[in-house]
Amino acid sequence: MISFVLFLSLLSLMTNNMIIWWSVFLMMTVVFIFLNKNVKSYSSLINYFVIQESLGLMFLLMNFGIFQFFIIMMKIGVAPLHFWIFSITNNIFSYNLMWFLTFQKLPFLLILVQIFWFSGLMLLFFGLMVCYLQMFSLKNYKNLLVLSSTESFNWIIMGVFMSLINSIYLFIYYMVLMVMLINKFSKSSSNWLNWETILVFLNMPFSVTFFVKIFSLSEIFKFNTIMMLVMLMMMFLSALTFSYWLINMSVKFYDKNQM
After folding, report:
1. What is the pTM of this model?
2. Does the record's keyword annotation contain Cell membrane (predicted)?
């Protein structure tokens, strides 16, 4: 399946034909349903199929202006157009969750690069603020993990606008780390949390999201220094949001002993 997705990614990068791109969207939907059919999470599959195919039809019909850019962003689940992803991730676990957050996005990312709208940088910046605010209201560990992945993907796409080669390298690095982490830490919605997860997603130095954000910031610094300072302040906000995990982890074993 990974080889097939890499082939579709190469195909979407080599051509700018709308029909071929739409065919790639359809094949990625089929791949996702094939991988998840044994999980019996039919509500997630139906939601995913309806959302993706509706957006695919809009992509074919609205092939003018910047509409296609917004449609691709919504298909990937880039913040602030990520409202639909929780209806999918609530019923998938382990490698299927990892696939949804990484490999499933690869062909869409390469198509987005070809039709990018430079002013969309401000939309991505707004999406980061939405993510940080949403983190304060979430209580479910798994949803926090999904939202953190969405936020990191926003950073990667912001880096794409500045430097394509750096961002592809970062995305490969991000995928490899997610393959190892998500399968280990998402077995269930409550029991997978441990100190390794907290240190990884708290933007600790040499952790997963740390390098993604530092390299993206170094590219944005060449373009707008004020925006970089605001983003550094927002990264501190994300650390505050994940302090919820720290509090829960501190009392987790105490509660277990009481039970």
Report:
1. 0.79
2. no
CB 32 within 8 A of CB 99: yes
Query: Where does 85-194 have alpha helices with state H?
Result: 85-89, 94-101, 106-114, 120-137, 141-162, 164-185
User: What is the DSSP track for 169-226?
Assistant: HHHHHHHHHHHHHHHHH-SSSSS---HHHHHHHTT-TTSHHHHHHHHHHHHHHTT-HH
Residues 6+ apart with CB under 8 A from 229: none
**Residue that has been written with the tokens 């890499």 in this structure:** 6
Structural domain span for residue 23: 1-258
Map tokens 């926090």 to a residue. Answer: 144
When the pLDDT of each residue in the chain is averaged and rounded to a whole number, the result is 78
Ramachandran region, residue 77 (left: φ > 0; alpha: ψ -120 to 50; beta: rest): left
Q: Is 207 exposed, middle or buried (0-12, 13-18, 19+ CB in 10 A)?
A: middle
Our count of domains for the chain comes to 1
Query: Are the C-beta atoms of residues 208 and 201 closer than 8 Å to each other?
Result: yes
The two tokens of residue 179 are 């393959």
Q: Which residues contact 92 (CB under 8 A, 6 or more apart)?
A: 36, 39, 41, 44, 100
- Cα 259 from Cα 246, distance rounded (Å): 21
Convert the pLDDT of each residue in 5-63 to its tens digit: 889 888 988 888 889 999 999 999 999 888 888 777 788 888 899 999 999 999 988 87
